[in-house]
Specification:
264 residues; four-stranded antiparallel beta sheet; Immunoglobulin-like
Length: 264
């Protein structure tokens, strides 16, 4: 790839302060320097060398990206023609070069921008990271690595939304108690049940899903506090049903060529 006509990129080593300028420019103030994307004015331009160069006051850190760039002040006219004036070659050249440099800078920024892949309606990041993404709020929003990591961590650690729970008081007679929530599962082991703080064996009660009830094999004693927590449960994926409709997943995470039968 040829050197861009509007900027040069260098990598700091913690000691070097000299960075060559390998592009043409019209005014010293058109030369800018950014270290890791942050503009700095702590530099001078030395033209007494075989190659013009930026001399920075402080050496950029080891591994820092240093971009020496031309920005030709698009809002400033460098030549002002007047009626009846003599048009000199230098003034005409200066006006032309200013316009040419501005077009180069705009073209370079356009080439580096996020664009749609050729012949496609999809945006092509060309394998590069997209940074400074905001926190998602819509269902189709892009998201950040930290957001996904946090969501996965919450799932792995069973944190996030608080579990459903119900409280009752035994009377020594009743065995059936109506839950204050609609249970998602009916497996006894998916619930944590305590009586006066003591955990009850899942074999000693049944979850009646259609009526959202918990049914004890024997009635809890009178005045005993009963706590029912729907904690859910995790299970490893050991097989994928043959009627799994991978084509209905939104966002194309699975394609027709994906061998989902190999999941173990």
């Amino acid at each position: 790839m040829s050197t861009p006509p509007t900027y040069n990129d260098y990598t700091g080593d913690g000691s070097n302060t000299f960075f060559p300028i390998n592009f043409e420019y019209l005014e010293d103030e058109h030369v800018t320097v950014a270290v890791d994307g942050v503009n700095t004015s702590a530099f001078t331009i030395n033209t007494d060398q075989p190659t013009k160069r930026v001399e920075m006051t402080t050496a950029p850190g080891n591994g820092a990206n240093v971009r020496v760039r031309r920005k030709s002040q698009r809002d400033t006219d460098l030549v002002d023609f007047e009626n009846g004036s003599v048009l000199t070659e230098s003034e005409l050249d200066r006006a032309y070069r200013h316009n040419r440099y501005l077009h180069q800078e705009i073209g370079e920024l356009n080439d580096a921008s996020l664009q749609k892949a050729e012949g496609s309606t999809a945006w092509d990041a060309k394998g590069e990271r997209i940074v400074n993404v905001g926190i998602p709020s819509g269902a189709s929003d892009a998201t950040t690595k930290s957001y996904v990591d946090s969501a996965i961590s919450a799932i792995n650690q069973d944190t996030g939304n608080p579990p459903n729970f119900s409280k009752f008081t035994g009377d020594g007679v009743e065995t059936d108690f109506t839950l204050t929530f609609s249970s998602n599962v009916t497996t006894s082991a998916a619930f944590l049940v305590t009586i006066d703080g003591g955990v009850i064996d899942p074999d000693d009660y049944t979850i009646v899903g259609l009526s959202n009830e918990i049914r004890f094999d024997s009635p809890p004693a009178n005045t005993k506090e009963i706590l029912v927590i729907e904690r859910g449960y995790k299970t490893a994926i050991t097989d994928v049903p043959t009627d799994f409709d991978y084509g209905s997943i939104v966002g194309d995470p699975v394609t027709a060529s994906y061998s989902y039968g190999g999941i173990a």
